[in-house]
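hiii, so i know i said id send this last week but things got crazy w the move. better late than never?? heres the sequnce for the chain we talked about at the cafe, plus the structure i predicted for it. fair warning i was half asleep when i ran it
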Amino acid sequence: MLSEYVVEIFEYMKQLEVAAMPNPQYMDSQKELKWHMRDILIDWLIDIHNKFRLLPETLYLAVNIIDRFLSLRVVSLVKLQLVGITSMFIAAKYEEVIAPSIKNFIYMADGGYTEEEIQKAERYVLSVLDYNLQYPSSMSFLRRCSKAENYNIQTRTLAKYLMEISLVDHHFLDVLPSQVAAAGLYLARRMLDQGPWDANLTHYSGYTEEVIEPVSEMMIEYLKRPVKHEAFYKKYSSKKFMKASCFVKEWMGRHYDM
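okay and structure toks below
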């Protein structure tokens, strides 16, 4: 039944992703924050997300909440971590069947906040965002793209790692989630020598190679730099994720002067 409406659903997701985009220049309005502080916060949240074994959608939504909130409000440095942990708390309640308790989040923040502080922050963040948490993440678009290659597990896992670069690197803030998904899959296929980006992949992703190749180059530029986000790299060096980060690092060493 749902398959009858797949085109309409895909088009609706494309509309939603545009509406949920943050201001890519929001740091210009922040008085105490810098981009590297934001990126460090996201790496810390990736560690928390991994320890809680939450859904990928929860992480993507949490980061989107942070960026949208910081696009609308000036936040002091001492409140940045509170914004981060609160955003993950909100995202988990929205995406997970059974979300971690508020006490779990307090523990992960080393007891730096009380239940009341997080609950108050939760109400404020939601009100600023007008209670709108609709956000089709890159994961949603990857599922559709993967249909073009019969959901190959190795390609999908590698693509997930490459897509997650868009969370820790603020340069991707103006790139649509659907483009991140297509570029992640495109680069994963390139690394695995899986052939050209054909008409089938263009159909399911909605993008030609000419559109997504520049986004994949942004991923390459990130990978050329020394490992900066330890939690992110460590997460994908595990067997659970087929040691994707290790594979990519080795591939980069063979193909680029690093």
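btw The CA atoms of residues 163 and 184 lie 5 Å apart. thought thatd interest u
miss u guys!!
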